[in-house]
Amino acid sequence: MSYERRGMILLTRKAEFSSAHYYWNDAWTAEENVRVFGKCANKNGHGHNYTLEVTVAGEVDPVSGFVVDLKELKEILEREVVSVYDHRHLNLEVPEFAGRVPTTENIAIAIWERLEGKIPHARLHRVRVYEMPELFADYYGER
Amino acid sequence: METSIPQTAPKAYLSRRYRLSASHRLHSDAFSEEKNRAVYGKCANPYGHGHNYVVEVTLGGRVSPTTGMVCGLGELDRFAQTNLLARFDHMNLNTLAEFRDAVSTTENFTIEVYRIFERFAGAKIERVRIEETSNNSFEYSGRATGEAKLV
Fold first, then answer.
1. pLDDT by residue (tens digit) across A69-89?
2. Which of B40, B19, B16, B17 is nearest to B28 (CA)?
3. Contact (CB<8Å) B15/A138
């Protein structure tokens, strides 16, 4: 996470999607799921308006003055994330959550995995997912 | 909630925002009245004033493969209710023990909140950010010197 090279810029693009989900671990009893996940364990699901912030790091192109073409970044977010998540049930319709609880943390990690290596001329720096304005998760690709 | 999270699990950061309203007055006994007025301006007015603070806490940790979480949100909210909101909401900061020997600036408030969340057992506090107004915010990452850890 160090940017000693001259001209390194962090650039952030937002996108929004609205999705349904619930929290459930099949390895546990119903009582255990309710104890750990509370009202999020309602298997009929509930939903949120998510806000996604994708931050990329890169050097400014001397000709275009861009780090990345924002229109291209917008299209990548639309294709890789929004078109898959928006107005969908994350547990039932998005493959990475078949075996993974769709918490805000796991959504941020899954979006990182969807975007990694797909943004030309820049490096993925941070994925931030707001489940609501008062709750958000950040992932920097750390393992 | 869980004791064994594999070392290969991804590390993420969870941030939660809490709101509290409190009064304070910026005044240092080490300064003369004139000096207090010069340094703190209208914040030194004798009867105090108040803010709607937004306290944003960021916790870091490996995401549990079974819960998908850095820490339990209920556990975090209960901790914040007891140790942050019940202690500071609708209080005069200057009357509290935490500010007996420290000016109740939002810098000092931010450091105090960081120290409080260091006692939270569910995950490691990484950063506290407090918005005093929509124009002023303060961050502390527990470091004496150097740049903030998170960008």
1. 999 999 999 999 999 999 999
2. B40
3. yes
Contact B68 A10 (CB under 8 A): no
Q: Which chain A positions have a beta carbon within 8 Å of B66's beta carbon?
A: 25, 27-28
The pair of structure tokens assigned to B61 is: 């940790």
Q: Give the H/E segment covering residue B33.
A: helix B33-40
pLDDT digits (tens, 9 = 90+) for A107-128: 999 999 999 999 998 999 999 9
| Distance between B77 CA and the closest CA of chain A, angstroms | 11
d(CA A134, CA B17) in angstroms, rounded, equals: 5
Q: What is the C-alpha separation between B17 and B128, in angstroms, rounded?
A: 10
pLDDT tens for each residue of B9-28: 999 999 999 999 999 999 99
Cβ separation of B151 and A27 shorter than 8 Å? no
For chain A, give the number of residues.
Answer: 143
Distance CA B133, CA B60 (A): 26
